[in-house]
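Researcher: Following up on the earlier apo prediction. This time include the ligand. It's zinc ion, with the SMILES given after the sequence.
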Amino acid sequence: MSSTTRVYCCCNSGHYFSGASCPYDGWSSPAWRELTAAIAYRDKEGKKLAIAELSMLRVSRATLSRTSIVSFGRDASVFEALAPATYVVMGETKPPLKLGPGFK
Ligand SMILES: [Zn+2]
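Model: Understood. Below is the ligand-bound prediction.
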C-alpha cells in the first residue's frame, strides 16, 4: 500500500497549506521558505519527514510551531490546503480564531 506524506504550514488565519503561500489569503513568511528548503533537502535524500528530523536541520522553533506533518493512507486523499471552520479542543467546538496561538 502506498502512502504520501505532506508538510503543512499554518498561516495567521488558521489555514493549512503545503505550497509557497496560503492559497486563501496569500500569507507566507521567510520561516516557511526556510522549512520548504529543509523539506526539499529531506526529499532529495529519500528520508521520511518528521518534526524531530526538521529540528535537526536547524529549522527554527518558531517555524516548527506552525508545522504539521500528515501521512495519508491513500493518495487520492492528499490536499494542498485546508481551511477548517471549527476544531474540537478539550471537548469544546470553536473556530480557529477563537483558539490560542497554536491554531493560527
Ligand atoms: Zn491563510
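Model: The first helix runs from residue 30 to 45.
Researcher: Noted. I'll compare it with the apo version next.
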